[in-house]
Design goal:
Distance between the termini: 38 Å
Largest sheet: 4 strands, antiparallel
Helix content: under 10%
Number of strands: 11
Strand order of the largest sheet: 5-6-7-8
Radius of gyration: 15 Å
Oligomer: single chain
Shape: globular
């Protein structure tokens, strides 16, 4: 079982740091699937189910999880998350990335 709660927003000045923490009621991420791995980025999180499906949540008003439909039918075996991007590795060795970024 994976549950998600809250978010934090902070602002800094030279001498002090102010943080606002909002705690929501826990939201059950996977009521009918077994989660095998989770990854967390700056403002979002990912989970892989036992069937290779990927769910994402965070950085939205209610933290509700959403199935990444662009990966439907692809067996994802590993995930990673960074500042504002995500990476998913398939069982065929294909790497899928999405989110904010620049082309180098």
């Amino acid at each position: 079982m994976v549950a998600s709660v809250g978010w934090t927003a902070c602002s800094s000045s030279i001498n002090e740091r102010h943080c606002k923490v909002v705690i929501h009621d826990p939201y059950l991420i996977s009521p009918s699937f077994r989660v095998i791995k989770i990854a967390a980025g700056e403002t979002h999180s990912l989970a892989i189910t036992e069937y290779g499906n990927v769910f994402m949540w965070g950085n939205n008003e209610f933290l509700q999880p959403e199935l990444v439909v662009a990966l439907d039918g692809i067996n994802i075996v590993d995930i990673g998350a960074g500042w504002k991007y995500s990476a998913c590795l398939s069982d065929q060795g294909e790497l899928y990335t999405f989110g904010a970024g620049k082309r180098f």
